[in-house]
Amino acid sequence: MAVDSKIFTREYAEEQDKQDPLRHLREEFQIPSKADLKATSLKDECTSAKSPLLPTEHILSIIDAHADSAALLLLPGIQFYTGQYFDMPRITAHAQAKGLVVGWDLAHAVGNVPVQLHAWNVDFAAWCTYKYLNCGPGAIGGLFVHERHAPAAQGTVSPSAPKVEEEVTISNGNGAASSDYRPRLTGWWGSSKASRFAMTNSFEPIPGAGGFQVSNPSALDLSAVAASLSVFEQTSIAALRQKSLKLTKYLEDLLLHTEGDKPYTILTSQDPEARGAQLSVLLQPGLLDTVMEVLEEEGVVLDERKPDVIRVAPAPLYNNHHDLWRFNECFRKALTKAVQVKADKDGK
Predict the structure, then answer these.
(1) pTM of the model
(2) Which of 120, 160, 326, 327 shows the smallest number of beta carbons within 10 Å?
(3) Residue 7 burial by CB count (10 A; 0-12/13-18/19+): exposed, middle or buried?
């Protein structure tokens, strides 16, 4: 899962669609079907042509410009392409002051940087567990819903309940009002355990985020999450963040200050507080395929985003400074070969 902000430029969004077509398909089919929510989609707003990063002040200005017509603001905690770590508490507070509901996609943030969703008054957030939580592809996702959105009074909710923007009082099918209920996608796994197998065709939401669950997760997926969290329990996110800051700075120093040609630039912010455990490196055109081939031969595992970006993510839970030194040595070897291969092709 990787969701981009609703305030990105159309040109930026089109580029992101190339990098993450699933995101485009998901939003293309979901947003029109929820037109009554009046949530903004992608806006034709200007960002810097010199940098893909979005300054906080720019984000706040776009919120101000569209606050009268927008109902929902959805952003990534860390932007998957650039590695930018957004100022979540400030943006949340500003958007909510304008009357917007604020949600965060934490796909690249959970297990990577500290987040305090309740303390920051975030309305809701969602994330996957296959990235920094190391649970593998297809593992279950996670959900946070602020407690002010999640109460469920005693009673049941009919499947034909009206879907409106605010909390509504729902009839239990006998004409009696029974439950104050935040509209949602309802599923049996979010219904009360006490009545889940009663087969009454009524929905009795579990109080809290549990009431927003739709279907039961795979037992095998849950075992992967449990194993991962048992490792995280041996340390803390605060400790991992401190190690991450040191590792990412060391990686940055290697990339910037190693002698020799540098046919690349770093897209990710140089501000340690504005990034997580990731540096996105933009290669000169025509180098990516050869670079990835050599790195794979050397046993270096990282991510590519065509046409020219590699994402290097020193995960503090298991990477160390020697790993980064070795990556840099292999990266130099890969660049040397890639430049030569490109020169040979260009000479033909």
Answers:
(1) 0.80
(2) 160
(3) buried
